[in-house]
Amino acid sequence: MKEKEKRILVGMSGGIDSSAACIMLQEQGYEVVGVTMRTWDHPSHFSTPDQEQPNEILEAQDVARRLGIEHHIADVREEFRQVIVKYFIDEYMSGRTPNPCVMCNPLFKERILCEWADRTNCAWIATGHYCQLENRNGKRYIITGDDTTKDQSYFLWKLPQEILQRMIFPLGGMTKSSVREYLASKGFETKAHGGESMEICFIDKDYREFLREHCPDIDEKIGTGWFVNSQGVKLGQHKGFAYYTIGQRKGLEIALGKPAYVLKINPVKNTVMLGDADELKANYMLIEDVKVIDMEELLACKNLSVRIRYRSQPIPCRVATLDNNRLLVKFATEASAITPGQSAVFYEDRRVLGGGFISFQNGVKKMAADMSLQHQL
Fold first, then answer.
1. Closest by alpha carbon to 343, among 101, 142, 151?
2. Beta bridge partners of 134
3. For residues 36 and 121, what is the distance between their CA atoms, to the nearest angstrom?
């Protein structure tokens, strides 16, 4: 390999996965360069009052020193606030439930990794994501990781081909436990048995507290509204639509004599519809802002399935195209808690074909009836 083709930039969080990825790539003959992004500071990220850098950067620097690799810090806090945090707040203020990790990967982290790879003369970029890659018909597809409990393919459906062509996922064929064992065997016993963050990186506690902190006038802008049932009958007051999400049962602070779930959120009327679990079920779903690698392949796929949230199981489905880059999805079995703002990710077996964002479901039943008449579903 030429000199540049031996160099690979690794996004280092200082944690278990990215540290293991660095060691593996070194053993495969790559010249590893690390970069750690400083995206969001919170008091919990600092162990001592006089600490200048957050813990994750110090940990990444320590790993880089021990491995003898070049390491850089990318201070992108302001851009992260303007792009990812703003998106997160705007979505809740619009009555949707965002998944910031889905937006962060294509719009932010992997894009910055590409910029730093060019700056440091690296041909490749790598992360510790639990997923794999496959070349087919001149395109590169994401494949689910072998560890089904850690698979992160759901978050990466928006990555464009120009980034995927440069990506390497060293951990995709491993389980989390085997990664821990591998890291321990390389002399990083303490890190190998350490914990890991499972929450949104910039949310320390509850997202509602975060909204109040960063939108001090949120209660003035939105204000209290009405809980209603599916017939529009008022059931009681709520604190404001932004504090609720589809499928929510706990924390409603209303007594109806039976379990109640959030069915729909209307940000225009500031109403939150409540009902029972059966009313959350749906046979169809409308998605927007669709991005797929090959639309003809998606429409013709005989083994198509869709995941509607990170931890959900894929649901067999069929799709039909609509105007304005939208798709109508018909589930083979009922789905529950269709949540606007979340991602719908399409798979053929383990291969990611693309995805879209779940839209408000207004008019979906009529669209489904029209499509059925036209024999498109």
1. 101
2. 141
3. 17
Phi, psi of 65 (to 5 degrees): -60, -45
Band of pLDDT at residue 370, cut at 50, 70 and 90: confident
Tell me, what amino acid is at 262? V
> Is 22 annotated in the active site?
no
The catalytic residue among 22, 104, 122, 317 is: 104
Percent of the chain predicted with pLDDT > 70: 98
DSSP three-state, residue 345: strand
Between CA 138 and CA 192 the distance in angstroms is 38
Write the pLDDT tens digit of every residue in 101-138. Answer: 999 988 899 999 999 999 999 999 999 999 999 999 99
Give, for 209, the enclosing helix (H) or strand (E). helix 207-214
- Say if strands 343-348 and 124-126 run parallel, antiparallel, or are unpaired: unpaired
Q: Annotate 117-130 with b (16+ C-beta within 10 A) or e (fewer).
A: beebebbbbbbbbb
**Catalytic: which of 101, 114, 201, 215?**
201
Query: Does the pLDDT at position 43 exceed 70?
Result: yes
User: How far is 187 from 195, CA to CA, in rounded Å?
Assistant: 17
- Is-catalytic flag, 201? yes
Q: Distance between CA 178 and CA 132 in Å, rounded?
A: 16
Nearest to 72 by CA among 33, 105, 122, 117: 33
For the record, the structure tokens of 143 come out as: 């494949």
* CA–CA distance, 223 with 286 (Å, rounded to integer): 29
Residue 323 Ramachandran class (φ > 0 left, ψ -120 to 50 alpha, else beta): beta
